[in-house]
Amino acid sequence: MFKSSTSPFDKLLEKATSLTNLEPDWGSIMQICDAIRQNDVQPRYALSAIKRKLNATNPNVQLMALKVLESCVKNCGPILHFELATKEFMEEMHTMLRNSSDIKVKNEILRLIQAWAHAFRKEPSFKAVSDQMRLMKAEGFQFPTLKESDAMFSADLAPEWSDGECCHRCRTSFTVMNRKHHCRHCGQVFCAKCSAKTSTIPKFGIEKEVRVCDLCYDKINKKIEI
Ligand SMILES: O=P(O)(O)O[C@@H]1[C@H](O)[C@H](OP(=O)(O)O)[C@@H](O)[C@H](O)[C@H]1O
Ligand SMILES: [Zn+2]
Ligand SMILES: [Zn+2]
Prior knowledge:
The chain has 226 residues and is mainly alpha-helical. Helices cover 47% and strands 7% of the residues. The relative contact order is 0.09.
């Protein structure tokens, strides 16, 4: 659990929202999602830290923060959605929209609010999002055409990581030279040799190449039936 103000989570968020980023820092973004999913950081704390970045004066920092927020909503599931879909947070997004003079920031906010409203359309507990969208529409904001994929969230969540003193596949014991690694698909612990491959994991909404074990690599890439 990250606690101090310069926790590894805060450092990851600094890196992911650096104003010098010319494009999203997917490595840091995925580690932020992993940290939330593995409960290394409380979703409420994570969202408040991201909110501070959303209120930055530099539009590029705001855009990077919106990308982090979008990935967290896609990848962290209900534990994050409950913190996001509140009247307070939605009003803060509305204020950000009104206060921003940067057209890219404004369009990103509208695109995200619409995608979340669509994704949560059958979830009464998250109606704050569609309520906010109605208010924004009434104020005359024009929403972009909805892209279904924006509203696709990882239906499954990656499993908790198991621990162990030996590789789940070849059973070699872990030592300083034979270190632990985790497969992001099954969550099991492996040696480097048995988890040397990487893959995206679309069903978990993981768009970047992440470490997977040999068996999961074959399952994800349909070499064997899941
Ligand atoms: O290298 P170490 O200092 O032992 O730390 C290990 C790495 O962080 C591994 O990351 P990876 O799976 O991305 O390799 C992680 O899966 C293990 O649990 C950690 O023990
Ligand atoms: Zn092994
Ligand atoms: Zn695996």
